[in-house]
Amino acid sequence: MKVGVFWRRFRNVELQRRLTPDKVYDDAYDEAYHHYEALKEAGFDAVLIEWKDDPIKTYEVIQKEEVDIIFNASSLKEIEFLELFNIPYVGSGIDLAATDKRMRKDIVAAHGLPTPKYVVAYSANEIPSVDHLRFPLFVKPIMGRGSAGIDEENIVYDKSRLPKVVSKITEKIGQPALIEEFIEGREVTVGIIGYRNPIVLPLLEIGYNNVKTNTYEHKMFDNEIIKCPMEVPEEIEKRIKDTALRIFKVLNARDYARIDMILGKDNVPYFLELNTYAGLTTAVERGEKHVHHGYMGYMAKAAGMTRKEFIGKILESALERYGFEDKELLLA
């Protein structure tokens, strides 16, 4: 059994590069190397594979290395490639990866789970009516990642400010803009690993350092105030975890995912989005290069997991889905 760990240049910052190319740091290789090391520590044979622009070249490397399963697929293009060539991989399938934030919100709402009301704008000149929405509003890319395009101006208190923010999303990032009600409360993110018997990790609360939301720079340069486990009454904790687990299941997430929510002042956990490519990096080992710390890495630590146990469990979930049941044989 051999695991190929994908890495792709600028995987986390490709959208933000369109706005501030001089303020991005590409940690794609460092992140993949973290996963590679964790898998080796867990006893798996692993190899790093760089994603090529020509998918045939990527396929040739996979064949040459005799890889059995891929870890760290990080875009819809990569998942389409793996599906096309029938290569097993870790993480959610094309049925979820191909959906945008709007579609996921609609599915969640259809199952009776709370999520802020929204509209979608395709240009600054054609913004749908927002009269039925409660201000302030929050504007973000419909398929964004890594807080790309997010700064404090994305919180909109006045309708006259909407065109400027929508234009940033639609013209500079090149995506439709999701405009939703801004729920005041505590930002909480919930990590879940597994598939048949998913495990909900300790809750993580994201506090802000002199900003009103988790902007790109605030997040990518680890400026957040992290509280993990989040301090909430037991009944509220259970409500958040139960809601997150239902979302994980109704969206058919696989192996790992992170659900972002706002715990409103009414103690209702409102669904914002599900991250299929959530960051999994943990604290680096002594002597290793610093790498941006993933939220799920904090959760794993709070759950008492080492990085090899954490990454290993995620891989084992995928192996179980594909029918590779004998772990001793896999490690041979």
From TrEMBL:
InterPro entries: ATP-grasp (IPR011761), ATP_grasp_subdomain_1 (IPR013815), Dala_Dala_lig_C (IPR011095). Keywords: ATP-binding, Ligase, Nucleotide-binding. The keyword Secreted does not apply. It holds the Pfam family Dala_Dala_lig_C. Transmembrane segments: none annotated. This is D-alanine-D-alanine ligase and related ATP-grasp enzyme. The keyword Transport does not apply. GO terms for molecular function: ATP binding; D-alanine-D-alanine ligase activity; metal ion binding. Belongs to the D-alanine--D-alanine ligase family. It comes from Caldanaerobacter subterraneus subsp. pacificus DSM 12653. Residues 105-316 form the ATP-grasp domain. SUPFAM superfamilies: Glutathione synthetase ATP-binding domain-like (SSF56059).
